[in-house]
Amino acid sequence: MLIPARMSEAEEQRWVTVMLEKLAAQESRRRLGDAELAERAERLSAQYFEGRARPATVRWVTNQNTRWGSCTPAEGSIRLSHRLRDMPEYVVDYVLLHELAHLLVPGHGPRFWQLLEAYPRTERARGYLEGVVAAGRLPHQPESSAE
Predict the structure, then answer these.
(1) Burial of 104 by CB count in 10 Å (0-12 exposed, 13-18 middle, 19+ buried)?
(2) 100: part of which helix (H) or strand (E)?
(3) What is the CATH code for 32-132?
(4) Cβ neighbours, 10 Å, residue 139
(5) For the YgjP-like metallopeptidase domain, which residue ranges apply (predicted)?
(6) What gap in Å lies between CA 9 and CA 51, rounded to an integer?
(7) Could you tell me the pTM of the whole model?
């Protein structure tokens, strides 16, 4: 954040507080809750699977650190990792569609992937997720300073 040099320390603190509150408000509006996530899943099922994939529950979870999502077809439950919350909508939609497809086809065979072909951003979303995974494996190096 850039702050004019003419601001006093008190003004700077007030400005930073105001801006952080605005950012937090924007972020909370952007993030979907479980109810909105379930509505989104319903819309995606209608759009791409003729409404055939009908989950009983769709929710965010914090205990999935190695998977983006999971589905238990027998229960009709879908769980998405909280790590997806800050990712682009098309990525969240892809993971939701992936799990919805499991309600129709349990495994990852040709029929499963054929269902996902209907979503035009499948490859892009998969590439994004692969990039996130690869970036997580990179060693963290301190930023160099220009001298």
Answers:
(1) middle
(2) helix 89-104
(3) 3.30.2010.10
(4) 4
(5) 31-129
(6) 57
(7) 0.74
- Please state whether beta strands 57-61 and 77-81 pair in parallel, antiparallel, or not at all (unpaired): parallel
pLDDT band, very low/low/confident/very high, at 88 (cuts 50, 70, 90): very high
Nearest to 95 by CA among 105, 106, 85: 85
Question: pLDDT tens digits, residue range 30-76?
Answer: 567 999 999 999 999 999 999 999 999 999 999 998 999 999 999 99
Rounded Cα–Cα distance for residues 90 and 48 (Å): 14
105 φ, ψ to 5°? -135, 110
- Cβ partners under 8 Å of residue 142, min gap 6: none
139 φ/ψ sector (left φ>0, alpha ψ -120 to 50, else beta): beta
Which single residue is written with the structure tokens 């098309």?
90
Tokens of 79: 């769980």
Paired with 8 in beta bridges are: none
Distance from C-alpha of 28 to C-alpha of 86, rounded to nearest angstrom: 11
Q: What are the structure tokens assigned to 132, written together?
A: 């996130």
Tokens encoding 34: 């479980």
Domain locations in the chain? 32-132
